[in-house]
Design goal:
Elements lengths: L1 E3 L5 E3 L2 E5 L5 E6 L13 H14 L1 H8 L1 E8 L2 E6 L6 H5 L12 H4 L16 E3 L9 E6 L23 E5 L4 H10 L4 E2 L11 H4 L4 E4 L6 E7 L9 H10 L2 H8 L6 E2 L18 H5 L3 H11 L6 E6 L7 H13 L3 E6 L1 H7 L13 E7 H4 L23 H11 L4 H18 L3 E6 L3 E4 L2 E2 L13 E2 L2
Parallel strand pairs: 14-15
Antiparallel strand pairs: 1-2, 3-4, 4-6, 5-6, 7-8, 8-9, 10-18, 11-18, 12-16, 12-17, 13-17, 19-20
């Protein structure tokens, strides 16, 4: 509905807006020419239905709705959103770029329960999914949507005019990275996605090729972290969660992912390092790697009985394949019994949604990555959702973190928010809402024939040109 520019500031996209003087009423006006890929016009009813579905799952959306008085569509082009009290983070949450962004879909699709996957992929953007060519695990094809009307202003980050200069974009899954490097070198493919694919140790194979450009994208740094399941032993015991955190050292994990210290750094901040609200308080064992004996002592005091830690490990995702193996060994060194279960990433995504006992198809731990820009605000950081069954996978029930976030949301001064950010850091580490494993960045590689690619954290394919 709205987007962020290169400076990560909210800008109009599908809608312009005004805000009342008291900061409580947001009025959005849909722009002309908006159509879904099935030819139907985008209406305010579609927008409201999409917002309501999104807010059931997104951490920031849940916070907004806790403060929502009404959300109405008085006519086909207008949305009026009234809050109980002002919320300074409102537009930042609505415009975030990844990790459950607010996509607008037809009301009929948005009627799908939020805990069920949609099966109708009708969108309204500059590209449409070619469903007849979709091959799960193999490739996804998009083609230019001829009826899309771009905004008039130039592209700026993910805001501005989304003008498409290519007819089709085809994403091809190549689990073997050396195959992908060979394909870009030969011109078989044009681009290797930095998020998943370009290991630093293979950079020498492409850096000397004048036909390939290797680059880091703006605001693309990632945080990798481990998430525990709070609902089953052994991690329903906070003492045992603390032991697991103390057992982990970030440096070996980062070295296994990236290998080159130029592209990673230890960082114990749950809100990210070098961010507005990030703090590394209470995280020295992670960054200095000196917590092993403390972990052993905690396990003994907690009376750990050897209950296996079922650790989900994806084998087909280059950016997530090494962390479980490294972390599992650290846990074993501290005295944990660890059952590392290998699977593809899509199976892991399905498995982590299960609240069954680990022995019955559930889980105790997995590792994931987030863009730092997505976790830098406690309201949008999914790891900091303490709403029990409505929280992100792992389902912590934590009234304290919710109260801290509420205080953050109602606070406008940056310096006061920074103080709350430090309190959130201490609480998150003490209760092990996540185990931060450090920050890293991976470059992307593209053929020199691809030009004018927008330098945004999320790779997008409008605006770019491809030479013959």
């Amino acid at each position: 509905m709205i987007a962020q520019d290169a400076a990560l500031q909210p800008r109009p996209q599908m809608a312009d807006w005004t805000v009342s003087e008291d900061g409580r009423v947001y009025t959005f006006h849909l722009r002309d020419g908006l159509k879904f890929h099935d030819g139907a016009e985008v209406t305010s009813a579609d927008v409201v239905a999409s917002i309501r579905r999104w807010a059931q799952k997104d951490a920031g959306g849940q916070v907004i709705f806790e403060r929502t008085e009404t959300l109405d569509a008085p006519d086909a082009r207008t949305i009026v959103w009234t809050l109980q009290r002002p919320m300074p983070s409102m537009l930042a949450i609505l415009s975030k770029q990844s990790s459950l962004p607010l996509f607008i879909m037809p009301a009929r699709v948005a009627a799908t329960p939020a805990d069920e996957a949609i099966t109708d992929y009708t969108g309204s953007g500059p590209f449409r999914l070619v469903t007849s060519e979709f091959q799960p695990g193999v490739s996804v094809t998009y083609e230019k949507f001829a009826d899309y009307v771009p905004r008039p202003e130039p592209a700026d980050g993910l805001a501005g005019g989304k003008v498409v200069h290519v007819d089709r974009v085809k994403w091809i899954n190549m689990p073997d990275i050396q195959t992908a490097v060979g394909a870009i070198s030969s011109g078989e493919i044009d681009y290797i996605d930095y998020i998943e694919q370009m290991p630093v140790d293979l950079l020498p194979l492409v850096e000397g090729d004048p036909n390939i450009i290797v680059e880091n994208r703006a605001n693309s740094e990632m945080q990798t972290m481990a998430r525990m399941n709070f609902t089953h032993p052994p991690f329903d015991n906070p003492q045992i969660r603390k032991a697991a955190l103390a057992a982990v050292s970030q440096a070996p994990v980062l070295a296994a992912i990236v290998g080159d210290q130029r592209y990673y750094r230890t960082c114990g901040a749950v809100l990210g390092c070098n961010t507005t609200y990030g703090s590394e308080d209470d995280s020295a064992s992670l960054t200095e790697g000196n917590g092993l004996q403390y972990a052993k002592d905690l396990l003994k005091e907690a009376g750990y009985d050897g209950t296996p830690v079922v650790f989900l490990a994806p084998t087909d995702n280059a950016s997530l394949a090494t962390q479980p193996v490294t972390v599992a060994q650290m846990l074993r060194n501290a005295g944990f019994t660890v059952e590392l279960q290998s699977m593809d990433w899509q199976t892991l995504v399905s498995r982590r949604a299960s609240q069954a006992a680990p022995a019955d198809g559930g889980w105790n731990m997995f590792v994931t990555n987030w863009m730092v820009i997505d976790i830098a605000n406690p309201i949008t950081n999914a790891m900091l959702n303490g709403n029990g069954n409505d929280a992100w996978f792992g389902w912590p029930d934590d009234e304290v973190i919710e109260a801290l976030k509420a205080n953050f949301t109602d606070t406008e001064a940056v310096e006061d928010r920074q103080k709350i950010g430090a309190q959130i850091q201490s609480h998150a580490i003490d209760n092990v809402l996540e185990v931060p494993l450090g920050q890293y960045t991976l470059p992307q590689a593209r053929r020199a024939t691809i030009t004018d690619m927008i330098d945004a954290p999320t790779p997008v394919f409008w605006n770019l040109n491809k030479a013959e």
